[in-house]
Q: What sequence folds into this?
């Protein structure tokens, strides 16, 4: 199995073995990728996940083989040849094809015909010898068994033949190949549903090769079918399918062959075509799911790794008209200081009072930035804030608030702010998103933050697994300050999880924080294995040992100490002075466990201890004269920010509370033609308005503005 994976993924066999052993020992993917590079040949997380998934697939196949062999053996039908075939099979579909004739099944037309004793007649017909088939069938007439005449005898024999052809190994293999290469997926509108299902209008009469269909189009067609608007079919040309079966099973041109041909027609239409269609739908759906999940996970990764503003005192506003704007002030660690509600908009229009509150609080708490949610009344609130006469004007930032309401009503929010209502919690979430998107967004189900593509139509288990892997990867790529991190953030650290996160918080509260990484071992149930997995991703600001604030793993501290000793300086000096680091020859510190990859990582970390892989925060402002969709006119060129990416294009927020679509055909050639220049979430782009449909709230944009 491991050799097969090694060949398929073009990986050294020893590295494959090492990864599987590490995973079986409980090592996490981020830990393996970051701290076991010598054992894996420096595999990244993506490759480790592919390896793990393939190993699981092959393990499932091997387990199924054992079940199949046992079942056939119990029936007394397992021959050496069949056993060898089963043992050598490489896909689950091939295995199930071999098992199909022996698989226990409900009573079928063929099994009923066999009970009537018609199997010998079917076998004689299949030989396709010359002769009168009615004469052959006559001896099988038996009213007690339910065979009343020649026609019934022949029909029963044909039922047996139809099932035989359906279960025939070569028939299935070749038919599968035909479906894979030439099957079309067609969709038709169900009569009378035209008006109600008009959102699926482009699929009312659609046909395309299923192996070429894009993920989003397939998922849309299947959704239209599920909702009762479309009728969807998957099959190749019927003539091609029947010719294929005739070529396998017809051996003559006589009466018996005619019966076999009739059986083949029945086999395809009643049995084989529906089975292959189901299989092809499954294959295509899996492929579409994988693409949609990949897009979703990529979007979530980009959103989680969005540039943080950092530790600043922030005023956050959850905008609203009738109910007012909820205003909160957070200290530089995200702790709620004060909150109130202001009413600068209709119907109250208490502009003077609102202005006074914002100005006084900004001075009182030395507010450095104002975060404004981009929902209802967002642009109006931004306009109000920009006209406040600040003594020291803070940064003013529009923040995407997708999912803030979900957080506000969650158990996490209630636990954090049990004495505050959901409006306060929502405003706090908006402010914290500006300060540190990762730390705040991990508290929300990724499916609620508005960056998915047909997320409710894909395999939910696989989607959840992929999103969890993405969140874990992002958290560990950035690292976590153990003395300020929330329980939710800590729970995603390699080797920790929810239970240990609670224990860490409890210890932190009782002991006024952690002074060193080694102190983690004093936490209840925080054993050596958990420490090994987690310690490299934990940060302790201002720790006595400067390495505790870095991504250098404690297991490597001795190496750094030896480096410092070799040039007679302190570890802190080594971290602070580039001229000292240049004196280190890392080859002198190679050991059986740590080679060049790990030593290179250590030197990079010493140069930028605890470095944050996220980009620097870049202030973005919408056009202040455009605040509503009614303000838009075709031809306008505006600055926007990408808020969602799909296979068919991307959605851009241009500050009018309704995102515009840049279809892939309207994306700049530099993004479409060059795969190294792909669009990213939160990317600032210039777009031109193509069309505006205010009634349906649809905005069509283009990036081709030259």
A:
């Amino acid at each position: 199995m491991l050799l097969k994976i090694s060949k398929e993924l073009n990986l050294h066999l020893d590295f494959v073995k090492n990864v599987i052993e590490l995973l079986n020992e409980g090592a996490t993917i981020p830990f393996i990728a970051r701290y076991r590079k010598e054992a894996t040949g420096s595999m990244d997380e993506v490759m480790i996940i592919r390896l793990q998934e393939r190993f699981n697939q092959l393990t499932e196949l091997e387990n199924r083989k054992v079940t199949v062999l046992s079942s056939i053996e119990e029936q007394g039908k397992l021959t050496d040849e069949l056993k060898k075939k089963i043992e050598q099979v490489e896909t689950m579909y091939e295995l199930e094809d071999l098992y199909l004739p022996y698989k226990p099944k409900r009573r079928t037309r063929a099994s009923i015909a066999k009970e009537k004793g018609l199997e010998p007649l079917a076998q004689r017909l299949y030989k396709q010898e010359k002769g009168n088939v009615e004469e052959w069938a006559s001896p099988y007439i038996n009213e007690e068994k339910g065979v009343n005449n020649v026609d019934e005898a022949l029909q029963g024999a044909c039922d047996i033949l139809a099932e035989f052809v359906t279960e025939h190994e070569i028939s299935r293999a070749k038919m599968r190949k035909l479906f894979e290469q030439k099957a079309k997926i067609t969709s038709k509108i169900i009569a009378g549903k035209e008006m109600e299902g008009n959102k699926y209008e482009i699929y009312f009469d659609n046909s395309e090769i299923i192996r070429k269909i894009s993920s989003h189009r397939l998922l849309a067609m299947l959704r239209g079918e599920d909702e009762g608007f479309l009728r969807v079919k998957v099959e190749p040309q019927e003539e091609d399918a029947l010719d294929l079966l005739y070529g396998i099973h017809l051996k003559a041109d006589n009466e018996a062959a005619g019966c076999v041909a009739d059986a083949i027609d029945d086999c395809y239409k009643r049995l084989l075509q529906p089975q292959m269609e189901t299989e092809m739908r499954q294959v295509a759906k899996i492929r579409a799911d994988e693409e949609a999940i990949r897009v979703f996970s990529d979007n979530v990764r980009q959103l989680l790794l969005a540039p943080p503003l950092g530790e600043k005192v922030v005023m956050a506003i959850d905008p609203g008209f009738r109910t007012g704007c909820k205003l909160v002030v957070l200290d530089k660690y995200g702790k709620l200081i004060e909150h109130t509600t202001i009413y600068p908009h209709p119907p109250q229009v208490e502009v003077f009072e609102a202005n006074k509150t914002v100005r006084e609080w900004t001075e009182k708490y030395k507010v450095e930035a104002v975060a404004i949610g981009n929902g209802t009344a967002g642009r109006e609130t931004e306009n109000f804030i920009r006209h406040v006469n600040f003594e020291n004007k803070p940064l003013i930032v529009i923040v995407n608030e997708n999912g803030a309401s979900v957080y506000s009503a969650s158990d996490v929010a209630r636990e954090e702010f049990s004495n505050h209502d959901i409006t306060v919690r929502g405003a706090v979430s908006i402010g914290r998103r500006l300060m540190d998107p990762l730390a705040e967004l991990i508290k929300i189900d990724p499916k609620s933050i508005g960056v998915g593509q047909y997320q409710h139509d894909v395999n939910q288990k696989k989607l959840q697994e992929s999103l969890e892997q993405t969140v874990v990867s992002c958290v560990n790529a950035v690292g976590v300050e153990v003395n300020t991190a929330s329980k939710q953030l800590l729970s995603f650290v390699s080797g920790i999880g929810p239970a240990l996160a609670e224990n860490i918080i409890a210890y932190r509260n009782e002991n006024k924080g952690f002074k060193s990484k080694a102190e983690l071992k004093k936490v209840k149930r925080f054993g050596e294995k958990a420490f090994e997995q987690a310690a490299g991703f934990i940060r302790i600001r201002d720790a006595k040992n400067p390495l505790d604030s870095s991504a250098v793993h404690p297991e490597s501290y001795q190496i750094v100490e030896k480096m410092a000793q070799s040039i007679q300086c302190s570890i802190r000096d080594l971290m602070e002075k580039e001229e000292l680091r240049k004196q280190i020859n890392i080859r002198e510190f190679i050991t059986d466990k740590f080679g060049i990859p790990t030593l290179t990582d250590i030197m990079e970390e010493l140069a930028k201890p605890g470095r944050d892989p996220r980009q620097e925060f870049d202030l973005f402002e919408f056009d202040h004269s455009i605040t509503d969709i009614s303000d838009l006119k075709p031809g306008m060129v505006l600055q926007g920010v990408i808020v969602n990416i799909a296979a068919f294009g991307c959605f851009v927020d241009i500050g009018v509370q309704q995102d515009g679509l840049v279809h892939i055909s309207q994306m700049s050639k530099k993004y479409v033609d060059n795969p190294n220049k792909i669009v990213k979430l939160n990317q600032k782009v210039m777009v031109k308005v193509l069309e505006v449909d205010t009634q349906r709230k649809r905005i069509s944009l283009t990036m081709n503005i030259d």
